[in-house]
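REQUEST ID: PR-0412
SUBMITTED BY: lab tech R.K.
PRIORITY: routine
TASK: structure prediction, single protein chain
INPUT:
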Amino acid sequence: MRYFLLFLLIYISCNNLNKSQPLDTEIKVSKQEVEKNIAILRKCGFFADMITLSDQEVFDQLHSNRIAVYSKIFEKTYDPGMNLDEFELACLDNHKMIYIDLEADVCAENKVYKDVILMFSNISDGKFIPKNIKESWHSDSGPISVEFELDNEIINFNPKFSDDWLDQKVFEICRKQIEAKGLRIVECLGESEFGYGQAISFMKLTDSQQTILEKNYRYKFRE
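STATUS: complete
OUTPUT:
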C-alpha cells in the first residue's frame, strides 16, 4: 500500500510540468498531438506492454488507466482527461522511467528508500531483483541504514538525513547495479541543462532511443 501511495503521488506530479508557463496556465494538447507523441515514445520503447495495439488504442488504454487511478484517489468516478505533453505521457510508463520529487516525505515510517529501490527494479526488465530490502532508522533523524540482497550478495549504504529529502546516493547505487547487467539508465533533464528543479527523472534508453528524444523534443541527458 505504501508503494502504491508513492506511485500515486508521482503519477499526479507528472501533470503540467512545463516550467516556462505561469503556474495558473494549463497547456492545451490536442488529441492528435498526444497520439503523435505516443507514436514517437513507442519508437523509444515506451508502452511495450501494448505492442500489439495501434496508437489510437494505446491512447484509449492510457486514458482508461488514468480514469481508474484518479477514481481510486477520489473514491468516485473521475476523468482527468488526456491533456498531456510528451513527458507527462512518458511518466505513465513506470517500466521505462522514474520521475520523483527529491522532497519525498522521507521519514522512518514511510520507508521511501525501499520504495525507490523497487522503482528501479521495476524498470530493469527483471535484471535487478533486490530481495530482503531493509531500511532502518536508529532515530527520527537517523542514522539511516539500507541494505538488500542481490545475486547472493549484500549491498548496504547509509543515506544522509536531510529532513524529508532523499539522499541521491540511492540512485547511484541502483543505477550501478542495473548498468552492470547491461541496461542503460540516463537522467533526463528535459530541455534545460538544469533539469526539473527539485525533481529528478531517469529513463531506460538505448543510444538510438535517446537520439530520437533529443531530435524530437530537444531533450538533454546526463549519464
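NOTES: The first helix runs from residue 2 to 13.
REVIEWED BY: pending
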